[in-house]
Amino acid sequence: MNTEGFVEQLRDWHEKIGVYQELLGREARRLRWRHYRFGLLATLLPLAAGSTIFLSLASRPDVRTVIASAAGLLVCAALTSVITFYNDARRSEHSRFVAAQLGLICMEIDALMQSPPETGQLMQQTLWRLNDRITDTSEGAPPVPFQVREAFACYDVSLGGNQAVESAV
């Protein structure tokens, strides 16, 4: 293996890892904000329902008020179960963790591009080792939803697949 082929392979991996890191970052932000929205609703709805119930105790409760309060409490229970069991926060942190691991691999690739190994056998072993690390990291990575991938165009096909394009978002 020659040095140019080695460096070209590293550049290709670096580019793909960068795109995947961006996708994971977007997914982590999306999950974090969804977790916060559910949490805010799960906090505010019981507050509104509880205050409505206490205010209605002072006067004769209207049937519509009681039904609306009960519906609000049921929605609150559903949102709380979503927060508890769906684990958006955990999935968000896992996306960030994998993106950080990929960042470490990118730093190693940068160092190898600056000073590649001297022999072809060392280059081949380095590529195998990096390939194993990338594979292990991507196997543990959370899936990126289609909406996130679609919003971030990875490669422009008209440029032969070698040029990264800017985000459409």
Q: What's the helix-strand series? A: HHHHH
Mean residue pLDDT: 77
User: What ranges have pLDDT less than 50 throughout 5 or more consecutive residues?
Assistant: 153-169
Number of helices, counting only DSSP H or I runs of 4 residues or more: 5
How would you characterize the overall build of this protein?
Mean pLDDT is 77; it is low at 153-169. The protein is 79% helix and 0% strand. The longest helix has 56 residues, at 3-58. It is built from five helices and no strands. The chain has one domain (3-159). Helix 1 runs antiparallel to helix 2. With 169 residues, it is mainly alpha-helical.
Short description:
With 169 residues, the chain is an all-alpha fold. The protein contains five helices and no strands.
Characteristic key phrases:
169 residues, 5 helices, 0% strand, rod-shaped, disordered C terminus, mainly alpha
What is the topological layout?
Layout: H1 3-58, H2 63-86, H3 88-114, H4 120-139, H5 146-151
Helix pairs in contact: 1-2, 1-3, 1-4, 3-4
